[in-house]
Amino acid sequence: MSHGLKNPKSAKELLDMYYLQLRCNLLEAAASFDRIQKADGFAEEVKNDSRYQNLRKSLEILASSSKTRACDFLNLFSEDEK
Amino acid sequence: MKIIEPHIHMIARTTQDYERMARMHCVACCEPAFWAGYDRTSPQAFHDYFTHITEFEPKRAAEYLIDHYAWICINPKEADDLAFSKEVISFMPEFLDRANVLGIGEIGLNKNTKNELETFLLQVDLAVKRDDMIWIHTPHLNDKKKGTRLLLDCLADRSDINPARVCFDHMEEHVIKDVLDAGYWASMTIYPQTKNSPSRVVDTIETYGKTRIMVDASGDWGPSDPATLHDALFEMRKRGHRQEDIIDIFYNNPCRFLGQNPKFRHKPE
User: Fold this and answer.
1) In chain B, whose CA is at the least distance from the CA of A67?
2) Which are the contacts of B14, defined by CB distance < 8 A and separation ≥ 6?
3) Eight-state DSSP code of residue B164
4) pLDDT by residue (tens digit) across A14-50?
5) pLDDT bucket at A81, cuts 50 / 70 / 90
6) How far is C-alpha B10 from the chain's CA centre?
7) Strand order in the sheet with B185-189
8) What is the pTM of this model?
9) Which has the closest alpha carbon to B100: B269, B265, B268?
10) How many contacts does A have with B, using Cβ atoms within 8 A?
11) CB atoms within 10 A of CB B192
12) Who among A3, A9, A18 is closest to B240 (CB)?
C-alpha cells in the first residue's frame, strides 16, 4: 500500500475553501428533513422506512469526531452491514 | 496537459461531448460494454452493439483527435440468464481481436446473484485463456460493499490472474482499500449523485496515494458529465497539489494500466 498524497492546505485554509459549500450542503439536508416532516402522511410508515432511518443515523456519524466519516457513512448504507 | 478518460459510454453521448472533451485536452477515451438502459432482446443485439463501439465510435472520436478504445463483455445487469450469456460470450473473441479493443469489461456484479457470478467467472476464464486484461464493474449503492467482497473472494484463490492487469471500477471510500491491498488497480467514478464527487475523489487520493489509482467520469445516459473528470483535476490544483502528481493521476496512470495492452498507443510522460 502506497502512502497518501499530503493535502498541501492547512485546516484553516480548507475551512475557508469549503465553508460556504459545506454550509449549503448541511442547510439543504436540514431543509429536506423539514420538507418530509411537514408533508402530509409523515407517520410511522416513513419513520420506519430503512432509508429514512439510515439518513437519521448518518447525522450521528456527521456529528462524531471520527476521521473516517465518509467511509462510516457508506458502511451504514451497505447491505451487508445490516 | 493531456488527459485520458478511462471509462465513458460514448454511444450514449452527443458529438458535442466529443468536442468538449477535445477542448479539455482529452486525447483518448475507453468505452466498456454496458447495459443500454433496457435488456436486449437477443444475443444478436450485442453483436450489433459490439460492432458499434468497435467501428462507429472510433471514427466519431477521430473527428475530434481522440483515440477511442473499447472493452467487450456481457454486462452484469444482463448476466443473470446463463444460456443467453453463454451465447454472447461465444462470439466475443471476434471483437476482442479488433484493433481498438483492450480487454474484457465491464464485467462484475449488479445484484450479487449466483448467475451473475457464474457469468463473471466464465468471462474471467475467457480473459485468462486469451491473456486479456479485465475491467470490473462493482455494484451500485447498498450492494457495492458485499459485491466487491464477493468479487475479491472469488478471484483471491486464482493463481492465473495477475491483479496488475485487472481494474476494479466505481470505487468509493469503503471498498478501495481492500482492492488496492490485493494488488488490483482501482478507478473512481464521479457522478453528480450516486458515486463520488470531485472533492471526495481527491480526498481518497490524499488518503491512499496515486499508485494504481485512476479517475473516470463514466458518462452514460444517466446523470453524468465528461467534464467532472476535469472538475477533479481542478480540485487537485485548487488544493495546491503538484502538477506532476496531477499528470500521474489523469494521464500517466491510465497510460500505465491501459498500456499493458500494446494496442494502447499513449505512453507516460
Assistant:
1) B207
2) none
3) G
4) 999 999 999 999 999 999 999 999 999 999 999 999 9
5) low
6) 13
7) B3-5, B26-32, B67-72, B101-108, B133-137, B166-169, B185-189, B213-216
8) 0.94
9) B265
10) 61
11) 11
12) A9
pLDDT digits (tens, 9 = 90+) for B168-207: 999 999 999 999 999 999 999 999 889 999 999 999 999 9
Domains for chain B: give ranges and CATH numbers: 3-258 (3.20.20.140)
- B208 neighbourhood in chain A, CB within 8 Å: 1-2, 4
Task: At B111, give phi and psi (nearest 5°).
Answer: -110, 15
Q: Beta-carbon neighbour count of residue B131 at 10 Å?
A: 11
Q: Which residues of A touch B163 (CB under 8 A)?
A: none
Q: Is A28 on the interface with B (CB under 8 A)?
A: no
- Number of Cβ atoms within 10 Å of the Cβ of B216: 28
ipTM for the whole complex:
0.90
**At A3, is the pLDDT very low, low, confident or very high (cuts 50, 70, 90)?**
confident
* pLDDT, mean over chain B: 97
Q: Are B146 and A79 in contact (CB < 8 Å)?
A: yes
Percent over 70 (pLDDT), chain B: 100
